[in-house]
Design goal:
Blueprint lengths: L7 E4 L5 E4 L9 E5 L6 H12 L1 H4 L4 E6 L3 H11 L4 E4 L4 H6 L12 E5 L5 E5 L7 H11 L2
Parallel strand pairs: 3-4, 4-5
Antiparallel strand pairs: 1-2, 1-5, 3-6, 6-7
Length: 146
């Protein structure tokens, strides 16, 4: 199955539960970031950085966070930290595995960000992301590739 067609449970920007496929976002660039676990120190810091940069990021792309946490955990994480982007629950690691082909290194738990163009093609990958400066790298990528 192609990664655009994998259907996952998610929480939208307003906290509503919904089913999503990445193909739902055709016509939009996507910043798809995989993170290990809700409400852990580094994952929370990363989510805060995406949240706080949303005004800039939304000019270029829709932000979607993905982890193996369930919807209940995602909703608690979103509410507690006032997150303003979609969170997907990849409990069976289906989406993560589908993106492994776009990575040089494959591991079970890894912080990775992909940029998908308006057709859903992976055009940029960051592996083993350091959350410090990462948002700036994403914005710089979009500014250079308008």
């Amino acid at each position: 199955m192609h990664y655009l067609d994998i259907e996952l449970d998610g929480i939208d920007e307003n906290g509503k539960e919904k089913k999503y496929k990445l193909s739902d976002f055709k016509g939009e660039n996507i910043v798809l970031y995989f993170y290990p676990e809700d409400d852990t120190p580094t994952c929370t810091e990363e989510a805060h950085k995406f949240r706080d940069a949303m005004e800039k990021l939304k000019k270029y792309a829709r932000v979607i966070g993905v982890s193996a946490n369930n919807i209940k955990d995602h909703l608690e994480f979103k509410t507690k930290h006032n997150l303003n982007f979609i969170l997907l629950s990849d409990k069976l690691n289906e989406l993560k595995k589908a993106f492994d082909d776009h990575k040089k290194h494959v591991s079970d738990i890894e912080r990775t960000t992909f940029i998908l163009d308006k057709e859903g093609n992976v055009v940029k990958t960051w592996e083993k992301v350091d959350v410090d400066g990462h948002i700036e790298e994403i914005i710089e990528y979009f500014e250079k590739n308008k």
